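REQUEST ID: PR-0412
SUBMITTED BY: lab tech R.K.
PRIORITY: routine
TASK: structure prediction, single protein chain
INPUT:
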Amino acid sequence: QVQVVESGGGLVQPGGSLTLSCAASGSFDAISNMAWHRQAPGNQRELVASITRSGDLHYVGSVKGRFTISMDNAKNTGYLQMNSLKPEDTALYYCEVGVKRGILNSYYRGQGTQVTVSS
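STATUS: complete
OUTPUT:
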């Protein structure tokens, strides 16, 4: 079993910054990739950013230049550094982790951490 726990959310003023963390633990060989998604009430889930173990990055257009995704393979932990936050970034942010066990890949998601951008 694999556990995924996000942390670091909160209330921040427009223009502020937050860093989200995503820690994976349990029985697996390695993390193959990690992605951050977000969903605001009434909106569809949106892929915000993703990273592979080899370092390939992807960002949705609305966060390019403001958000940075990274991963510490040794700690099985990923991060989403969010700068210049806007009210439209308000959402439940959750992490999805791909892990390898032998030749198999499996995906696990955490419960999420709330980010609210408001003055």
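NOTES: The first strand starts at residue 2 and ends at 7.
REVIEWED BY: pending
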